[in-house]
Amino acid sequence: MTATLLRTAAELHARARTGRRTVVMTMGALHEGHATLIRTARAVAGPDGEVVVTVFVNPLQFGAGEDLDRYPRTLDADLELAGTAGADTVFAPSVDEVYPGGEPQVRISAGPMGERLEGAARPGHFDGMLTVVAKLLHLTRPDVAFYGQKDAQQLALIRRMARDLNFGVEIVGVPTVREEDGLALSSRNRYLSPGERRTALALSQALFAGRDRHAAQQALRARAQEIPATRARAEALSAIGESRAAADAHAVATTAGGPAAIRAAARLVLDEAARLDPPLILDYLALVDPDDFTEIGDDFTGEAVLAVAARVGTTRLIDNIPLTFGTFGAAA
């Protein structure tokens, strides 16, 4: 399948619409993670709908000293991958098309959530991101828009913007795609040397260590529910050697677990990576509520996000995984 390249919103608006229009927003340099987004959009659009992939390197998202100039531009390859994955159209506007008259004087503010984690590390980034997403939603006029969960804070802010400002578009998150060694797919991975890539694996390994600690904790808490409630039951269980196991489970579940233990398990991996050559330079490790990206407490229940950001050499990478608190079972 060949995707049609369009450069202006007028060309896109002139296309006949017979079904649902879905959109996947990218900055180009497409990889298998983007292809997964496009295939998901294709499935939702169905044979009568339309899949639009936007390719636009947004200058408002890059701060001083960031990699705007060296960010990869691979439009020909992007067209091929998008078409193969099921896109009907690639909308690749110029900066003048998106920002006629220069940088916009009126922008969308990400608010307090946009000042945490990624926002603290990259001041103004989320204001620029939300501004261009809002403009591209208006320019493409989709029914459904798809974004990767790897950029968890970005996804949360887009959902909040759509809800708070009544955009009337469904926002769908698609799970992170990883390479065989666990590294989350990113356009920036191509910057890594072989040695840097080996160090960079610590990001996903740290998240998996936190996830495994959480799963073990949940299993121990479930086991603790079996602690006998009466003396007779305790004596009966003691006779078959079960009371010690139940007591051990209860001790671990009540004293050594929770968010602190998950953070500690992940940080251990990151601390070891900081001693490698080349070293991993940690920006943050956080276990947060996805509704506002504040750190969760010991009594938290519901969905949470374990997120990490770090630099290896000159490349900054982010990653995250979802965890579920308050139910007995493995992490999501």
TrEMBL record:
Keywords: ATP-binding, Cytoplasm, Ligase, Nucleotide-binding, Pantothenate biosynthesis
InterPro entries in the cross-refs: Pantoate_ligase, Pantoate_ligase_C, Rossmann-like_a/b/a_fold
Compartments where located: Cytoplasm
Entry annotated with the keyword Acyltransferase: no
Residues binding beta-alanine, per UniProt: 61
Pathway connected to this protein: Cofactor biosynthesis; (R)-pantothenate biosynthesis; (R)-pantothenate from (R)-pantoate and beta-alanine: step 1/1
Reaction catalyzed: (R)-pantoate + beta-alanine + ATP = (R)-pantothenate + AMP + diphosphate + H(+)
Annotated binding of (R)-pantoate, by residue: 61, 154
Principal subcellular localisation of the protein: cytoplasm
Gene Ontology biological process terms in this record: pantothenate biosynthetic process
Annotated GO CC locations: cytosol
HAMAP family, per the entry: PanC
Oligomeric and partner information: Homodimer.
Function: Catalyzes the condensation of pantoate with beta-alanine in an ATP-dependent reaction via a pantoyl-adenylate intermediate.
Family listed: Belongs to the pantothenate synthetase family.
Additional comment: The reaction proceeds by a bi uni uni bi ping pong mechanism.
Protein name per Swiss-Prot or TrEMBL: Pantothenate synthetase
